[in-house]
Structure formats: structure tokens, C-alpha cells
Amino acid sequence: MNANPGANKGIKPSQLMTMKIIWGVFAITVFVFGYVLEVTEAPGSGQDPIAFQAAFGMMALMCAGLGLWVPLVLYTNGKKSNQPYHLAIHVPWILRMVFFDQISIAGFLLAFLTGTDAAYWPFAAVTLVAYGLSFPSENRLKAIFD
User: Fold this and answer.
1) pTM for the whole thing?
2) Among 128, 106, 137, which residue's Cα sits nearest to residue 119?
């Protein structure tokens, strides 16, 4: 028997559609950042890009780790509590997307501060892969509680 009575009810199609819309908005922002870098001239700081790459790379790694760890902790707590299914799923999933978004933001800042647009695209690629692995489907969401 499932410890969370709300989990048996599943997620409503409208709730799943809302999650898919949010997912799409996050995915589009990656391309918006790239577009902004292409149409503007980043001033660059004149400082060593390697130092910036290391700092922003570490920030992106921490955000990726937090994007995986924090939702797992919240999903585990959601299983143990009497939270409705959609609440136990939505909040951790949105936090995961926000942490993954920080990866592309780190790349955007790196590219803008160093004046090197190409520095953004590896961060964008990692973000898009993370988004792809986090696409909300009913089967994926149900698997969390099974």
C-alpha cells in the first residue's frame, strides 16, 4: 500500500499540461540567452577567461548537483507525508528546473563577462540535456511514487 493516499489519484491532465508549458518556457530561455549574446556586443572584462570559466563551471556543477539532490529529498518527504500527489510532484520538479536553469545562466554570465559568445553553448547544451531528462510525462511522475 502506498504511504501517500493522494498518490493513488494521479495527476490531472491539466496539471500535467501546466508542467509541460513550464518546461517549454524554461527550454526557450536557453535559446533566448543565446540570441541575446549573438545580437549584443558583450563588453568583456579584459580579465583572464580561464579563471571565470573555472568559477562559473563550478557554480554550474553545484547547480546541477542541487537540481538532482534537492528534488529527491523533497520527493522522499512527499512519499512519507499526506501531501496531495500534485503538490508532492510540482514543487520538487519546479525546483529541479530552476536549478538546471542556473546552469545556462552561469554560461550566459561567463560569455557576457569574457566577451566570448562561444563559452555559453556548452552550458546551454548541458541545460538542454537536463531539461530533456526532466520532461514531465505521466509515467515518469507516477514512477516517483511507485
Assistant:
1) 0.81
2) 106
